[in-house]
Design the sequence.
């Protein structure tokens, strides 16, 4: 989609525990204070259907869920939220801030689950109506730090193990390397306010 005559679409990515959800909240609050029309969404989830899919995907009891099923459910949730919320918002010149989007599937199901990335790219194109974010912030931390930050009760994907998380992070780094114009890598070991200040500086530079 062209950037003209629509809102801006910004996504946040990173392995579990990186702090992206906090940064989404801080950026949304900043934009609201500037009287910019903005909505935030999370993936998987964001509406009734997608939240139902989220419950299946993240429930630690659904350990029998196959890797291909996981990928299809992730993108099914994405297709629904894109159709119902993202595209209408952008068309009405509302900005959208997303806690995860298509890059997550390439990283988690491609890197972590070892599913063919080229196939996942085609699946993403179909699910997103070929919608690409204007800007993506990737908050990078080590797997060890991510595990340390996670809550005591882990969801199904968080419980996938250290090797899974390492493969996921490695794929994220490859995605960043191949999309330098869209993705900004951030050192997630810095304190929350410093990360927010850096995000805001880059945000103004790129979009305002």
Sequence:
């Amino acid at each position: 989609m062209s950037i003209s005559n629509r809102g801006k679409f910004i996504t946040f990515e990173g392995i579990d525990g990186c702090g992206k959800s906090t940064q989404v909240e801080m950026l949304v609050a900043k934009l609201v204070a500037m009287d910019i029309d903005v909505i935030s969404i999370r993936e998987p989830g964001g509406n009734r259907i997608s939240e139902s899919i989220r419950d299946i995907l993240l429930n630690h009891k659904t350990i029998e869920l196959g890797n291909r099923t996981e990928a299809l459910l992730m993108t099914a949730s994405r297709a629904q939220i894109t159709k119902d919320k993202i595209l209408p918002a952008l068309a009405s010149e509302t900005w959208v801030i997303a806690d995860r989007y298509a890059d997550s599937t390439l990283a988690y199901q491609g890197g972590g689950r070892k599913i063919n990335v080229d196939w996942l790219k085609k699946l993403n194109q179909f699910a997103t109506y070929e919608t690409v974010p204007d800007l993506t912030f990737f908050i990078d931390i080590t797997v060890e730090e991510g595990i340390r930050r996670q809550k005591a009760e882990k969801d199904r994907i968080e419980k996938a193990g250290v090797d899974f998380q390492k493969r996921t992070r490695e794929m994220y780094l490859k995605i960043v390397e191949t999309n330098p114009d869209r993705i900004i890598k951030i050192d997630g070991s810095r304190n929350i306010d410093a990360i927010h200040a850096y995000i805001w500086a880059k945000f103004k530079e790129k979009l305002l």
Q: What stands out?
A: The helical segments are 20-33, 48-58, 67-91, 102-112, 117-127, 143-149, 162-178, 192-207. The domain at 9-207 is CATH 3.40.50.300 (Rossmann fold).
